[in-house]
Amino acid sequence: MLSQLEAYRQEIATYPITNAQQLEEYRIKYLGTKGLVKGLFGEMKNVPGDKRKEFGQVLNDFKQFAEEKYNTAKETTVSSEAATVSQIDLSLPGNPTQFGTRHPINTVRKRIIDIFNRLGFAVADGPEIEDDWHNFTALNLPENHPARDMQDTFYIHQNPDWLLRTHTSNVQIREMEKGQLPIRVICPGRVYRNETISARAHCFFHQVEGLYIDEHVSFADLKQTLYFFVQELFGKDVKVRFRPSYFPFTEPSAEMDVSCFICGGKGCRVCKHTGWVEILGCGMVHPKVLENCGIDSEKYTGYAFGMGIERITMLLYGINDLRLFSENDIRFLRQFQGAV
């Protein structure tokens, strides 16, 4: 045992300690709760009784030797690190801070909300997981309507049907069910549709829908509201056209197009080579929808509209691929640092 202790002394004496990591490794190996010194004291039980006092003295000397090595190395290491810190030139400029920015979708969403806030529209929100009534039935969508097909809608549960909302019109229904008239709200949010991902479509996107219900609301009110909106968003020179269309929840219905800013009206894959881009659908709220929500359709009328934020953002920033918004490519997002 004595010869083994001498070998341990030689090992400790030559153990290299030049930094804090090696110092901690030394402490754990020799002085820790499971270290060498602790283990040697555990061997006392195997020493004959008449030799324990002598062996105990030898172990105490060995322990002091190991501790002295540790304390000396600790002072040297601390002094060396302090000297390194003192050599830092505090007059040097710091590392530049990387600033984040708002996502272009959020920037445009805020601009749209601000414009409609100036027209007196409040912001309403609702659930993204919705039941059949608020997403389809109350909106005058019959049971055999294509939108109800699983090829177009993400169903979470059936019988009863629960699904990822396909539009933010569910928020309009919930607002009408409250019965607090008149209603003037916009409903921004994320929606989901089972579509093939391409430059023009995605399985999820963002919408802003609007609803205004009061006495004597007409289609002329709708057109003037939307004219004001696109001029504030795209500028006074924007070209606009309305096309008759069909939606189960509005009658009459129309789709609104603006001139394509990406190609200047010459034709590109975003505008399908027509020079026009549809930005929203609109119309007068169908009387049946009003009745479904407990509103007297003989007394009240209203208009509704809905638009995709991605498509408007593509027009504003000249982006030709909708997939860029959700790929998290930092090279793409850095282009919008001025939009903070």
Automatic annotation (TrEMBL):
Catalytic activity, EC: 6.1.1.20
Nuclease keyword on record: no
Gene: pheS
EC top class, as a word: ligase
Keywords: Aminoacyl-tRNA synthetase, ATP-binding, Cytoplasm, Ligase, Magnesium, Metal-binding, Nucleotide-binding, Protein biosynthesis
Subunit-level organization: Tetramer of two alpha and two beta subunits.
Keyword Metal-binding among UniProt keywords: yes
Primary location recorded for the protein, binned into one broad class: cytoplasm
Molecular-function annotations in GO: ATP binding; magnesium ion binding; phenylalanine-tRNA ligase activity; tRNA binding
Family assignment from sequence similarity: Belongs to the class-II aminoacyl-tRNA synthetase family. Phe-tRNA synthetase alpha subunit type 1 subfamily.
Cofactor binding note from Swiss-Prot or TrEMBL: Binds 2 magnesium ions per tetramer.
Listed PANTHER family: PHENYLALANINE--TRNA LIGASE, MITOCHONDRIAL (PTHR11538:SF41), PHENYLALANYL-TRNA SYNTHETASE (PTHR11538)
An example Gene Ontology biological process: phenylalanyl-tRNA aminoacylation
Subcellular location: Cytoplasm
Protein name listed in UniProt: Phenylalanine--tRNA ligase alpha subunit
GO CC terms in record: cytoplasm
Reaction(s) this enzyme catalyzes, per UniProt: tRNA(Phe) + L-phenylalanine + ATP = L-phenylalanyl-tRNA(Phe) + AMP + diphosphate + H(+)
Cofactor: Mg(2+)
Ranges for domain Aminoacyl-transfer RNA synthetases class-II family profile: 106-335
Binding site for Mg(2+): 251
Cited InterPro entries: aa-tRNA-synth_II, aa-tRNA-synth_II/BPL/LPL, Phe-tRNA-synth_IIc_asu, Phe-tRNA_ligase_II_N, Phe_tRNA_ligase_alpha1_bac, Phenylalanyl-tRNA_Synthase, tRNA-bd_arm
Organism, scientific name: Flavisolibacter tropicus
